[in-house]
Structures are given as C-alpha cells and as structure tokens.
Amino acid sequence: MNDHLFQILIPVTGLVSGLIATYVSLQNRALLAEVRRELAELENRIIARINGTYVRAGECQLREQLVHERLAAIAEDLKNRNAAGD
Residue 56: what are its φ and ψ, rounded to 5°? Predict the structure, then answer.
C-alpha cells in the first residue's frame, strides 16, 4: 500500500514543483518586463528634461551672434535717425 502511495506521491510532487517553478518564472518575466518599461519611461523623461533645461554650446553661440546682429542693427538705425534729425 505504501509503495503504491509513494509511486503516486513522488510524480505528483515533481509535477506540482514544476508548475510552481513555471508560475514563478512567468511572474519574474512579467515583473522584469514591467521594470524595463518603467525604466525606459523614466529615461525618456530624464532626457526630455535635460534637453529642455540645458542649452547646447552651439545654440548659445548662435543666440549670441543673433543678439550681436540685432544690437548692431539697432545701433545703425539710431545713427541713421540721429543723422537725419541733424
């Protein structure tokens, strides 16, 4: 009687153990996928924030050049107005 019980109990234990391992593995994969997705979203938010906060050196040079050009144009306009007013 005990031999028959052990012949059934041992494979059932292996089957249950395998099913539990499969379930845990699937849960780990789902959790890992969720963590990867959240990490990618966080990375995108950080990059967007950095790009919105900091200005690149090339952009700074272009802005400075534009400001100089505008100031030169304003100065030239004032000279022309003062020369015409004299």
Answer: -70, 155
